[in-house]
Amino acid sequence: MNSLIKIPLTILCTIPMVSCNEDDQMDIEEFEVAHAGDLNKYAMSAGTSTIFVNSSKAYDMNAPWVTGKYSSRFLSGDGLYDDVTNNYGPVYAGYSCGSCHMNAGRTSPGVWNYLYTDTNGKKVYGSGTNGMSAMLVYVTRKNGAFFNDYGRVIHDHSIYGVKEEGKLKVTWDYMTYHFPDGEEYELAKPNYTVTDWYTKIWDSVKKDSVTISPEDLMCTVRIPLRHVGMGQMMAIDRNEIEALAAKSNYPEYGISGRCNYITEGGVYGIGLSGNKAQHLDLTVELGFSSDMGATNSRFPEEICEGQAQMQQGSMMGLTYDQLEIPTEDMEDVDLYLHALGVPARRLGSTTTKVSLTKSDGTKTTMSEREATKRGEQAFYKAKCQLCHVTTLHTRPRGATLLNGSELPWLGNQTIHPYSDYLLHDMGSEIMGVGLNDHYTSGLAQGNEWRTTPLWGIGLQQKVNGHTYFLHDGRARNFVEAIMWHGGEAEASKNIFKKMDRADREALVWFLKSL
Which long-range contacts does 305-309 make (Cβ < 8 Å, 24+ apart)? Predict the structure, then answer.
């Protein structure tokens, strides 16, 4: 938690602070005039929630409209996000939101946390020992049913004196490929093993307690999402999303996106949040409960209710007679996520030169801005924009927080998330599996994933120190992430694949500008 409200210096210098009364709307034209100097170097990303910051705190700064009482609530939510004051446990996946979402981004994931080298010389990665693993490990039976005495997530950490539910071990298979011009690239496919199960399960056929069999285990992993543009996503006009779904039918490219209609908390609607668009909200209450083991009014039971860890926790001094996080605090965290600014797209320097390598091995030199523009043209040439839709709009009333507070300042904004927030089949062929994890969420099948919003992606390395991408972190850079695209994205991937190497490099340069 920071002790000062996070307002970029450029905003402090150029924008008069306005009080956040419901009748106030920061005028976008005034905003652009005030930032005329910045807009020589940047492009707007999220209307009046745009911030002109490209440091390691680029994901973790409040939007300019956060003033008055909302400043205090933002700081309160930020504090809880970074520190739940020992209210986690007895088992958990992370000890705070910030442990997995460092700087509101994605902490380096446990799937690449090196543990040891086995007797066959293979490196083994997995669950950490420092109170968090920056990943969620989902387990079910092969038929989709949950295991008795385990929930949907293996909690691989616990407080002192309590046994964690299990540990994840990951090994990687690697395969080398080549672009048509001979350039080499490599893809990595994860293999998951759960060890150190805390208990056996009852086998109704054998009439005995048995260890969970690998043959009966379906395991998939999620690494943390970047918390960029959360408020704008929740304020998006759902009619526009449905219109995109109706329009998303491009047989010449094999593309046909669809909405994930779900019921959550007794409410039916279009899911936008999560890797498979499987949630209607930002899952603050669910995250505190499932990921950290902190009870709240929506999820009042401990995540290990009925398990041995409850008694173990009691022996270590835990009590279970009251909720650990009140609703008001949950809403402050929700406000914090909604009110984070979205970093502007960086256009690139007009004087600093970059060198791109052509397929014939020669070099071509141009300014950063020219390389970015060339990459943007390649992005469109590959038809990436058919799913990574560049421009959407928020509904007039903005967004509503989990306890009913309204945020009208998120309304009537033109935003550039580079996503249609629809489900698309991403294929099941590459290395024998593709991106199909066989895990369903609402209407989403194992091979279907929500189009990942790309805004802010180019700052991930600066914010979090790594470039692991995709739902499980298997892609170690932009090129690998693109080359894992199959299914509906196969045609776009093949266009990218056949480009001159300089154009491929320029497209990556463009992604780094987002």
Answer: 306/149, 307/149, 307/165, 307/198, 307/199, 308/163, 308/198, 308/199, 309/90, 309/91, 309/158, 309/162, 309/163, 309/165, 309/198
What gap in Å lies between CA 93 and CA 358, rounded to an integer? 45
pLDDT tens by residue, 429-474: 999 999 999 999 999 999 999 999 999 999 999 999 999 999 999 9
With CA atoms as reference, report the closest residue to 485 among 429, 419, 420, 437.
429
Whether the upstream peptide bond of residue 224 has omega within 30° of 0, thus cis, is no
Beta strands 153-154; 136-141: pairing state: antiparallel
Residue 42 covered by a domain: yes
Domain limits for position 53: 13-68+229-277+347-468+476-513
Please tell me the total count of domains within the chain: 1
Query: What is the full DSSP assignment across 250-305?
Result: BTTTTB--B-EEEEETTEEEEE-BSTTS-BSS--HHHIIIIIT----SSS-S-TTT
Which range (28-42, 149-163, 283-297, 312-326) has the least confidence?
A: 28-42
Task: Give the pLDDT confidence score for residue 191 in this predicted structure.
Answer: 97
Q: What is the pLDDT of residues 367-395, one digit of tens each?
A: 999 999 999 999 999 999 999 999 999 99
Give the residue carrying structure tokens 């926790």. Answer: 313
Cα 425 to Cα 351: distance, rounded to the nearest angstrom? 42
Per-residue pLDDT tens digits for 279-323: 999 999 999 999 999 999 999 999 999 999 999 999 998 889 888
Among 331, 158, 339, residue whose Cα is nearest residue 231: 339
Alpha-helical (H) ranges within 64-216 are: 69-82, 97-100
Interhelix angle for 327-339 vs 69-82, to 10°? 100
Contact present, 188 and 474 (Cβ < 8 Å)? yes
Pick 13 or 186 by higher pLDDT: 186
C-alpha closest to that of 423 among 254, 259, 240: 259
| Helix 368-381 × helix 501-513 angle, to 10° | 100
Four-point Cα dihedral 501, 503, 506, 507, nearest 10:
-110
The amino acid that residue 507 corresponds to is L
- Say what the pTM is: 0.91
Six-digit token pair at 335?
Answer: 């406000």
Q: Residue 40: how many CB atoms within 10 A of its CB?
A: 9
Domain assignment present for 341: no
CA distances 499 to 182, 367, 378, 484, 487, Å, are 12, 20, 8, 17, 20
Which residue type, as a one-letter code, is found at position 170?
Answer: V
| Mean pLDDT of all residues in 346-356 | 96
Task: Flag whether 410 is in a domain.
Answer: yes
Give the Cα separation of 340 and 410 in Å (integer). 11
SS3 category, 419: coil
- Specify if 338 maps to a domain: no
